[in-house]
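Chain and backbone:
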Amino acid sequence: MFKKQECEDAIRHLVSKWAQEKGYTQQPEETPSFSEFWAWMKDSGYSGYQQFRTRTDPRYDAEMWFDEEMRQTWRN
């Protein structure tokens, strides 16, 4: 199991990689799906980064990082 900070760094990087693959340009009218990203992580062999110790839940933390990277914090 990776440490939380290692997972955060990896997930933030993977958000950029995923967004580039999907062609997102971070325009205001785009609303990328965290669920789609989370599934992509599993399908692409990055599921190890979805498991780390946290006070909340790994998926919750990852969604916060996703929203920050995709500039969607208004959703929270």
Q: What stands out?
A: Residues 4-24+32-75 form one domain. The radius of gyration is 12 Å.
